[in-house]
Amino acid sequence: MIILEVKEITKRFGGLVALKDLSFKLRQGEILGIIGPNGAGKTTLFNVITSFHRPETGKIFFKGEDITELRPYQICRKGLARTFQITQPFANLTVLENVKIGAYNHIPSSREATDEALRILEAVGLIEKRNERATSLSIGHRKKLELAKAMATRPEVILLDEVVAGLNSREANDMIAYIHHIQKQGITILLIEHVMKAIMSLSNRIVVIHYGQKISEGKPEEVSKDPKVIEAYLGEEYILAKHQRS
Ligand SMILES: Nc1ncnc2c1ncn2[C@@H]1O[C@H](COP(=O)(O)OP(=O)(O)OP(=O)(O)O)[C@@H](O)[C@H]1O
Ligand SMILES: [Mg+2]
């Protein structure tokens, strides 16, 4: 089943075309990796899917329903959650309180929201930080918090924007394991990532974006051999080469 469809999306910022006639489908249960050089339009794509930005043309369908005109909170209520590349915790709140806000998406009671938040903090490996202010966290812990906030909303589809980038290798391995665990719970995942080890080990399929356009789509091993992809990464080809060696 197709759970999310991005259909012929174009998004401009003044004269800059950030996304151009972009289309792809997300299948229920899969991890679809989104890669592309810096500035390719990946984060803009998440902003359009979750209605932080309105596209000039095109539509977004979630479980067959046109959600293009909905507001971000309405999209979240429907079961589509995201993380932010630049982590955005509520600065004056503790880690636990931040995650509870996500849980209030579906749980009205404070006590039950606390239980849900604690359960997620345990799973994501942040339980011992629960009473710290979100702003005091290291980058690795902030990324986990970002993911915990999104998971607390109980999504059916989760959009992850560079949750592995910036982590040390132990943290990155933990995060990769946790993303696998999310998929095993039946949640469908759209994953933007520059860390090739994460993309290649997690993705069932990959869409490659370059200057806002889809230039390749397929299984990881197909996409990493695609000449158009290698050319787009010219100057960065070591990333793909490094993966092929390991
Ligand atoms: N709010 C905005 N206003 C104007 N231009 C923007 C805005 N957001 C993004 N852009 C531009 O749109 C293009 C795509 O940016 P985007 O952040 O989507 O890239 P990205 O693929 O996520 O890059 P990175 O890998 O560095 O995170 C860039 O040229 C960027 O400068
Ligand atoms: Mg980005």
Overview of the structural elements:
The protein is 39% helix and 25% strand. By secondary structure, it is α/β, with parallel strands linked by helices. The protein has 2 domains: 2-79 and 155-245, P-loop containing nucleotide triphosphate hydrolases (Rossmann fold, 3-Layer(aba) Sandwich), CATH 3.40.50.300; 89-154. The protein has a 6-stranded mixed beta sheet with strand order 6-7-8-3-9-10, sandwiched between helices. The longest helix is centred in the C-terminal third of the chain and has 16 residues, at 169-184. The structure holds adenosine-5'-triphosphate and magnesium ion.
Task: Provide the spatial order of strands within the biggest beta sheet.
Answer: 6-7-8-3-9-10
The CATH superfamily title of the largest domain: P-loop containing nucleotide triphosphate hydrolases
Count up the helices.
10
The largest sheet is: 6 strands, mixed
Fraction of residues in β-strands:
25-35%
Poorly predicted spans: none
Assembly annotation: single chain
Shape: globular
What is the radius of gyration computed over CA atoms, rounded to a whole number of angstroms? Answer: 18 Å
CATH class placement of the largest domain: Alpha Beta
Count of individual beta strands: 10
> Which series of helices and strands comes N to C?
EEEHEEHEHHHEHEHEEHHH
Per CATH, which architecture of the largest domain?
3-Layer(aba) Sandwich
CATH T-level topology of the largest domain: Rossmann fold
For the record, give the distance between the C-alpha atoms at the N and C termini, rounded to a whole number. Answer: 33 Å
Broad structural category: alpha/beta
Bound molecules: adenosine-5'-triphosphate, magnesium ion
Mean pLDDT: 93
How many domains? The number is 2
What is the helical fraction, as a range of percent? 25-40%
